[in-house]
Specification:
Strand order of the largest sheet: 18-17-16-15-9-14-13-10-19
Shape: globular
Helix content: 25-40%
Strand content: 15-25%
Number of helices: 15
Bound molecules: NADPH dihydro-nicotinamide-adenine-dinucleotide phosphate, 6-O-phosphono-beta-D-glucopyranose
Structural class: alpha/beta
Oligomer: single chain
Distance between the termini: 37 Å
Length: 513
Amino acid sequence: GSPLAGASWKDDGKEMPVPKGPDIGSQLTENTVSITVVGASGDLAKKKIFPALFALYYEDYLPQHFTVFGYARSKLTDDELRDTISKTLTCRVDKRENCSDKMEQFLQRCFYHSGQYGSEVDFCELDNKLKEKEEGKTANRLFYLSIPPNIFVDVVRGASRSASSLKGWTRFIVEKPFGRDSESSSELTRCLKMYLTEEQIFRIDHYLGKELVENLSVLRFANLVFEPLWSRNYIRNVQLIFSEDFGTEGRGGYFDHYGIIRDIMQNHLLQILALFAMETPVSLDAEDIRNEKVKVLRSMRVLKLDDVVVGQYKGHTKGGKSFPAYTDDPTVPKGSLTPTFAAAALFIDNARWDGVPFLMKAGKALHRRGAEIRVQFRHVPGNLYKRKFGTDLDKATNELVIRVQPNEAIYLKINNKVPGLSMRLDSSNLNLLYSERYPREIPDAYERLLLDAIEGERRLFIRSDELDAAWAIFSPLLRELEEKKVVPELYPYGSRGPVGAHYLAAKYNVRWG
Ligand code: NDP
Ligand code: BG6
């Protein structure tokens, strides 16, 4: 069943007692939810959104009356949309099962409307089609803006027009990037709020829907053993690491305008940092959690150029195979200085974290794919074992690792005696490997987030003041990098990234895990 079983469904202000979990469909006979994926012809829609909607349908998490519409300029029929998306749907829940019946039922609930993003007439036609499917029931509408950001506002203008005539709610999931800096982000928020209230805007950061990121608060606040250690008294540094073993393949045009700091650090890694470092919230309500995140973000020091290293991947040949440089991508301007790698040292100036470096590292075209949080604890005071047996515990301090992906795990490095008559210490892991402990497949982040948006649960979405606080940390640095035309350190495709990252860590007496 749903982890939220028994919670109530917030209807933009009104509380509606609605049971969660696989029964949700049968309880909502008078309501209908219409989900419109705007930009349905695009990469994200095909790769993530439709498969996530199908997975929710498969597990009976969608209400009984629901319709999915794709909207984009491409001219497609309903059947062509179904044909396209059917290629990416999988029987995720149980691979042994043949879910073709379920898939067919789902596809029959999917429709397509072709229209321009700035055309009110086209949105009016969509509205008519939605009304037809809604059959006079209380109509709740969710629009997923899976489109480039320059057309967010046009779409919101067109799609929100009919909202006031509906009895149900209308919500918009807005994909990143939310601007390029503080000013453009505020401007985007201002424009969206001309048509929407803050309660209608669901700014998505899909890292918040990842199982181990969601589990961070459980780890901290539902276990006695960690929270007392969660401060400068015991933690020497925290590392937030993102790496991909492929380049910007196919997304170079988008990427060149943003770079790795905006693409990964300012959102995904900073969100993890906020959840990691925030104080205990008053409750698990969305506003209480987001209040704590805002506080910790506002306590952070503005990032300085001295505390940042930027890199860009260059071409590389390995085993007879050649890998392209970032600037080989035809959609990337020649001589681009956009970083595809960055490392940064961040600080939180509050009582809990004063002086503790939070090191972030994010890069594309590195030697492996992964995302993890590494918490390095201080060394054991007194050095009892070093004095007696020469064992160097400085090299083997405790480390807690939360491996967000792949192969999700939480493990704690401890020092242990090697069994035997001699006194030798060994660093070993207390290991919670998800695939062994929880054999069931972990839902994709987009499933959790789509379900939350349908249920009006805002805990995992970004509030506008959070966004402002996040941009305030990075915007001056981003401006300086661009104004000074800082040249990124080149690193070979498939390598561990620029050596500058190691010097940055060493400056704070830290080694990357
Ligand atoms: P796409 O570039 O594939 O764009 C989606 C659709 O928008 C296209 O199919 C196209 O549809 C329309 N479109 C594209 N460019 C323009 C344009 N210049 N003007 C008008 N319409 C345009 O984007 P993605 O699907 O990759 O991403 C969608 C959103 O999600 C973006 O905001 C992106 O930053 C974000 N995102 C994407 C991720 C990914 O992995 N792809 C990951 C995280 C976030 P048509 O021509 O049919 O109208
Ligand atoms: C997106 C970035 O937000 O996250 C991409 O725009 C990146 O550049 C992606 O590849 C990584 O997401 P995941 O879930 O595959 O780690």
